[in-house]
Specification:
This protein has 244 residues and is mainly α. The chain has eleven helices and two strands, in the order H-E-H-H-H-E-H-H-H-H-H-H-H. Mean pLDDT is 83; it is low at 1-14 and 30-44.
Length: 244
Amino acid sequence: MASWLTARIVGNCETSLNAQVVLEKVGEKKPPSSSNLIKDETEEKEITDEEVTSALEKFGIQKGDASMEEMRKCLKVVEGKRFWVENYQVHPYASRVKKWLWVHERYRGYGAALVDGAKELEKVKEKEVKNKLKALQSAYGKFVKKVQGHSEFEDSQLFKFFLENVQDDTLKEQLEELKKDHSTLDNDETIQNAFEAAFLNEVISKDDTTKILELMTKFTEDMDQHMRKEENAIVHHWLNLTEE
């Protein structure tokens, strides 16, 4: 692994997580609908102790002093797609993903603010619409530049690191798809074209503002879906990276 990139993405690998700690911190939950090993009480009997232990090790969880009953309960808790995204704080290497996930939440907030701004256009006085629209266009343009910078980091460093150092065909396919998403999400001129079309009119119509609201809503929904795909694909791998 490249040393400087390893230090940034992996950090130290001196502690471990065990099943008892997970159960203590998170509690026992019903098996998630996305489970792929233990789905109900009847199927649970078909999973051997060795398979349970092996499955948990893939999530970075060691047996420690846990009983097999605790191990099975723990597997039910952690095998959902978004378990580590939503509970990364319980992992000893939470700091690896904390800032990246924080950025995603900030972007969700920015997106929601843009949608709110587009909704407000329908409430302001006619003579104020153009100025409000210019301010929204400016805010959108600045936000897209932030997203582009974030995508460039992911493509050139984060995704590159995983593609080079994690041998997982499914992850590779997911990352290649996410990189394609970046080229679409970050370079979509549809909203900017809608802004420019609106400014061509002497009086900005309700049809113009409605169109911008629809496009802004779709943009933020697509962005959220993309970030969820990234989080589902990467977080559990990232938390459980080793120096090997």
